[in-house]
Please model this.
Amino acid sequence: MINTLTRIREAFDAAGVTGWLHAVDIDSGAEVNAGSDHPVVTASVHKLCLLVALHELAVEGRVDLTEQAECLPTDRSSGPIGIAAMLDPVRMSLRDAAYLMMAVSDNAAAGLLLDRIGLDAVNATTSRLGLHHTHATHTFRQLLATIREDAGPGGAQALADPYVIARLRSLDPTRTNRSTPRDMTRLLSAVWRDEACTPEHCAAIRRLLGLQVWPHRMASGFPFDDIHVSGKTGSLPTVRNEVGVIEYPDGGRYAVAVFTRAANTAATLPLADAVIGTTARIAVDALRTL
Model:
């Protein structure tokens, strides 16, 4: 296992990032720990917590997932994809909004759901599941607002400045939505073991995680037709994350959480994206040899 941790650290270093990883065999409990209890900024990974909270409320009969909600252009969180990029009023069910939130990380769809259930419900769910280091401080709309405020008059261009990056509240786990890699693998394991809520609703959550469209992070480490990767990414300036479950045809299933922070402020860093898949593969390969 020492060699595994060395390879993971070397991969992070080669990609120019600081990284934290936890991987666990969902059935045996065997784990790879590379900073798994370090506080991390979740970014859009926290949408997984929102999704589980939504389904928990549905189990309790407090939310109907087929309920229709309207999202007006003036009420939307900003973003280049999904509802956020649309020009006209949109009306859809809560479960379809959840699909957009997970498949393409649609901030406006997440905002629609948070308007319906609130941050308190999300935090109540993570607390119930024993995720004691996981907390939602901001809605995604509020999170983006802190970035605009902290960037100042320079706008998005200022985010290339390391001094501006250093003052962003959104990058400080004590002042924004946060978790640890271990908390996230615990949540994923609960979903895959049908413990997060009822089996029917856990299956619905797994389905949405399996529909994520981004192949450039965790999935890049498992480029095989018979290995299934389900996950949720998260991105902020210098931050690239993904949590997910890797399922092998022999029945092996592994929850993995990788959180990274780059020194380079560039918006596009292919090596930083790819190292999430690389380190996830190193960890899973190690678990499969135990």
